[in-house]
Amino acid sequence: MKAIVIHAAKDLRVEEWDMQEPGPGQALVELNTGGICGSDLHYYNHGGFGAVRLKEPMILGHEVSGTVKALGEGTAGLEIGDLVAVSPSRPCGHCRYCQLGLQNQCENMRFYGSAMPFPHIQGAFRQHLTVDATQCVNANGLTTGEAAMAEPLSVCLHATRRAGELLGRRVLVTGSGPIGVLCVLAARAAGATEIVVTDLSDQALAMAERVGADRVINTAQNRDALVSYSSGKGYFDVLYECSGAASALAGAIPALRPRAVVVQLGLGGDMTLPVQAMTVKEIDLRGSFRFHEEFGTAVRLMQNGAIDVKPLITHTIGFQEAKEAFDLASDRSRAMKVQLNFAG
Q1: What structural domains and CATH numbers belong to the chain?
Q2: What global pTM score does this model have?
Q3: Are the C-beta atoms of 274 and 253 separated by less than 8 Å?
């Protein structure tokens, strides 16, 4: 079969790769669609991110959907022909964090397309993927593109759980990439009454507005736009920080009310935090990393129409044109979410 393999920064190849038959409790999934994520782009453009570096060739990809083609012995809950969203998260189930119900913090996590451990965890951008049946969520009724959006939506649903009560809350989102826009959808579904989004790109902000943000602000053009929200010790109850930029977080703190919650999703490297201002306002800083049980919830929310991710999918390109697709996905002025078509 063919797979999309990164060897080094800008060295992306479509190569032959061995296919594995499903064993007991496993399913063979013929890939339909794969979404290019920000972490994929870090490997493509920079050979890694932070201290994480490519040390060997690695198949990329972790936002995927496909059709069940074969089932191993003892596999329950799936039928051949089912459309499934495939969770890339494979916690061990045995370590102390898994036993505490914190599977996203698993000490032995196997997450598709990750160079954090060595040997690297090979990714899901391949024509056929053998998976544990427990990774598959029936996505019948969705398009293959929607089903592949279950993974990034799960990230935002987990962040929303970390944020706490959102019913009636005022929400600020810094960063209007795919995660920021999905956070708008997740926060609205959770009951937020006002959502404001900031970014440096008009194109990205237009997508946030399209999916229901009440106001969008280009902070490159209007650096003082949040000042009006700073009177009376602040305005917003919750901040989703999706940019990973220290300036975005620091600029948002004055606009947060006392005891507001900051949910940090963006992973742009270490930040210098305005600790004194956060301390005086008694602001909670909460990290949000990956997801687990939210994956099935993401699929169901799309299936029942509570969340519509289709507007985010701006381009679908054949997987054989992977380099062109990655270049397009790297250009925020042209693309929001670029997906690869493996079925053609």
Answers
A1: 2-149+309-341 (3.90.180.10), 154-287 (3.40.50.720)
A2: 0.95
A3: yes
